Amino acid sequence: MKKNISDKKLWGGRFEQGMHPALQEFSYSLAIDSALFRSEILVNRAWIKMLAKAKIVSASELRQLSKGLDKIAREWSECQACCEYSDVEDVHSLIQMLLEKACGPVAKKLHTGRSRNDLVVTSTRVYLKGQAAELKAFVRKAQNALVGQASQNSDLIIPGLTHLRKAQPILLGHHLLAYVEMLEEDLERLADFEKRLDVLPLGSAALGGSALPFDRKFLAKELGFSKMASNSIAATSDRAFLVELMSVIATLWMHLSRLSEDFILWNSEFFGYIELDDRFSTGSSLMPQKKNPDVFELVRGKTGTIFGILQALLVVQKGLPLAYNRDLQEDKPGVFFALSETMLALEVLSLTIQTARFQSKAARKQLTDDGLYATDLLEYLVRRGVLFTDAHHAVGKIVAHSSKTGKKIRDFSLAEMQTFAPQADQKAFELFNAERSVAGKQTLGSTNPKLVNQQIQIWKKKLKGSK
Q1: Catalytic one among 58, 77, 284, 340?
Q2: Domains of the chain: which residue ranges?
Q3: pTM of the predicted model, to two decimals?
Q4: Which of 176, 258, 267, 280 is the most buried (most CB within 10 A)?
């Protein structure tokens, strides 16, 4: 008996021959979209309730379909499905097939009035709602790790850098809290994305809607969407919400990569500010002495991959005519990978940061560079009535003279200091002190210890319960 080519497919009646194995391997997507299985079960539960409301399925058929969905949900194994059902086209076809096995011919009513076009984008949105909530929790872990280190090392001062050159003394905690702030903005961007995510496409069918009496408001309420797509073509063919998500994720990775670069530098012998826990370091297969910061290097490296996914999403959509095109099957692999890698990266980064040990002696040694206090000397002269640009010029001359003679500024005689800055007095030499420098800052948001401690306490309160 000739095998029906429409077996395991949601289409096929139009075709007399089966799909060539090469095309099947090229086009089937179950290995990727099986991640949507549980989300699609939720969508299907809402859909059959709506079909019952529309009198398309009876009360008894609704019970049959509900029990069938419950059964296949209980028995679901993603690994088993991808191996056992590798000849099934996608997750939508798999659920249809499993439901027909579970409750018989009535399962053929499940797909009434739907297209895979509106179904997949709805299941994706439902799935991403859960993923966004998980991602927030992992970002909070990283923030907790940074705030924890800021609190434990509240009195540790390091040289702040600009252009990777020593600039001014700052509290380590102030530096770490900068990343906490950046991550908070990433969370705000994620929350803004969720507004665009919270739109129901289901009921749009392939592109033009359905002639059947479907209640989309009922579907939105059942699935927890606050809004419905108002244009069926946009609903099924636009993936800008995924571009927005990837933009948020890419920005997050940009921040994680910058943080990683700081920790890589701090871990080097040239800085020596931190010692990494053995559990979060690796060694060399040749050089026995090596203890490498691979976690941070991997994050820095994977950032490029994440950026590439964002670019790919943009390129896939840039020339597509309306409405749905199969190109959009490429929307999920990169996004799903990015979400998984992001959560894993945040988990391991949090643990690595949390267990790192900061070395105060190495930082203290770096603070003896008099150039770090040039700005303090400048502002001291301004307070003594010197015009800012004149004071800036004078301190520049002082630094240049120190560099030329090899003599520390703090070792100048008062007369030598006054050669460049006549308004200076003996108090100028008290400025070359890291604790005094940070304590002297007055502006809100500065590295002043009292202000930094206030921020630490604010963050601890905000992050409480999110570890």
Answers
A1: 284
A2: 21-112, 117-365, 368-463
A3: 0.94
A4: 176
pLDDT digits (tens, 9 = 90+) for 89-141: 999 999 999 999 999 999 999 999 999 999 999 999 999 999 999 999 999 99
Q: Give the DSSP letter string of 263-310.
A: HHHHHSTTT--EE--GGG-B--SS-TT--B-HHHHHHHHHHHHHHHHH
Query: Which carries the bigger pLDDT value, residue 19 or residue 298?
Result: 298
pLDDT tens digits, 186-208: 999 999 999 999 999 999 999 99
From the number of C-beta atoms within 10 Å of its C-beta (0-12, 13-18, 19+), residue 318 rates as exposed
Cα–Cα distance for residue pair 26/326, rounded to 1 Å = 12
The one catalytic residue in 163, 230, 285, 413 is 163
Tell which CATH classification among 3.40.50.720, 3.40.50.2300, 1.10.40.30, 1.10.1270.20 matches the domain 368-463.
1.10.40.30
**Is 111 designated active site?**
no
Confidence of residue 3 (pLDDT cuts 50, 70, 90): very low
